[in-house]
Amino acid sequence: MSISVKDILKLDSLRKINLVGGEGGLEKSIEWIYVAECFENPLEGIKWLQGGEIIFITGVGIRENEGLLLDFIKGISEKNGSGLVVNIGPYIRNVSEEAIKLANELEIPLFTLPWEVKLVEVSREISNAIILSRIEENSLSHFLSNILFGDGELEGDAIQKAAYFGYNLSGGCCICVIDIDGFERYLKLKNLGDEKSISKIKINFRKIVQDVLDKHALKVPIIDKDDAVIFFIRSEENCMNRLDKALKEIQLATKNRMDGMSVSVGIGNSYKDLKMMKQSLNEAELAINSAKCQGLDGTITRYKDIRIYSILFSVENRSILENYFSEVLGPISSSDSKDNNLVEILEMYLNENCNITVTAEKLFLHRNTLKYKIKKIEELLNCDLRNFNDCIKVKIALDIGKILK
C-alpha cells in the first residue's frame, strides 16, 4: 500500500505537474519528500538522502548550469532517490534534452512544475498521502497477522473488514507463500551482509511480486515474513488460472531482475472460513518444504500434491521417524557402511521404476555392476525389491531421510 511516484500525479496540488523523462521509474515507492536547495554547492543538497525520497528543486543554485543538473540527477540515482521535480521559473527555465535522456537511462522520473505552484502546498499534500498510506498499511498488516499468527478468535466479521481495505475474501480462499530459495546462501554468494542491503533486496522482491500480481488483475492482501511474501487469494477457477501465470512470471522476473535469485512457491488448501487460513498457511509452507526435501528450487507446489510428505510432516514425534528410517535403511546409511553410495543407487532405482537399464545409464554404471549392487542392497536390508510392499516401505524410509536432513 506504499505510495508510488505515479500516485502523486492524482493529487490536487500536482494537477499541473508534467512528466518529461524517466517514465520507467514511475512505480518506485516514495518514502518521503525532500526540498534540496543549496546556494554554494547544489550537490550538497543530496548527500543526506536515505533512499526513496522525491526531490524538489527550484534551481536556485543550479540556474542554467547544465552539467550541475546532470550531476544532480546522477546523484539522486546513486542515492536511490525516487524522482526529481524541477520548479520551472527564474532559475531553471526548461529541462534540456540531455537531462531527459539521462533520466530515461537511469529510470529517474523527471517532472517539471510551474513556478506559481506553491511547494509548501505540494509537500503538505504528499506528506499527508504518505502518512495515511502507512497508517492504512500498518492496519492491514495487523489485521492479516492476527488472522495468520494470532492466538485468539477473530473479532467481528473478518470478510467485512477485508472488504474495508478493498479486498474480496468471500467464498473459498487459500494462502500462497513465495519464498526466496536459500536466502542466506544467496547473501553469502553476493557478499551481502549489512542490514540496509538485505532490506533493499526484500523490498525489491516484494515490489516484483506486487507488480506482477497487479498486472494480472490479482488484488490480494500481502504480508511479509522473513524472506518470504505471503498473500491471501480466492480459490475460484478464474483467480487460480491467473495466479498460475502470475507465479511463473514472478519467478522469471525475480531471476532476471535480482541477479539470478530463485523463488519457490507453496499453495495451501482452500477454506471458506478465514479462521482456517492458519491451516492453509501451514500447508503452503509444508508444500515448499517438501520440494526442499527433494533438493528442488524454483518450484510451484500445491499441498494437495505432496502426497506422502503431508503425512510425514504431520508426525510431531521426530524419534518415530528416526526409528523407522534406522530400522529400514540403517544397514546402508550408517557411517559404518563400506559402500556409502548405496542409498543414492537405491533411490535412483526406485525412481526409475526398478528399470536396470535406465538406472545404470543415469548412474553411469555397467548393468552387471548395478545388478550386483541391487542384490547387495537386498541382502543388507533383507528385502525383495521385486516385491511391491518392500518397495513402498523402502520409499517411505527414503522420504523420511530427506525430512530428517
From TrEMBL:
State the superkingdom. Answer: Bacteria
The residues covered by the Purine catabolism PurC-like domain are 7-130
Which keywords are on file for this protein?
Coiled coil
Domain CdaR GGDEF-like: from-to ranges: 155-289
Pfam families for the chain: GGDEF_2, HTH_30, PucR
Gene3D superfamilies, alphabetized = PucR C-terminal helix-turn-helix domain (1.10.10.2840)
Q: Does the keyword Transferase apply?
A: no
**PucR C-terminal helix-turn-helix domain residues:** 342-399
Can you tell me which residues the record assigns to a coiled coil? Answer: 236-294
The record's similarity note reads: Belongs to the CdaR family.
This protein is called PucR family transcriptional regulator ligand-binding domain-containing protein
Print the organism lineage: Bacteria, Bacillati, Bacillota, Clostridia, Eubacteriales
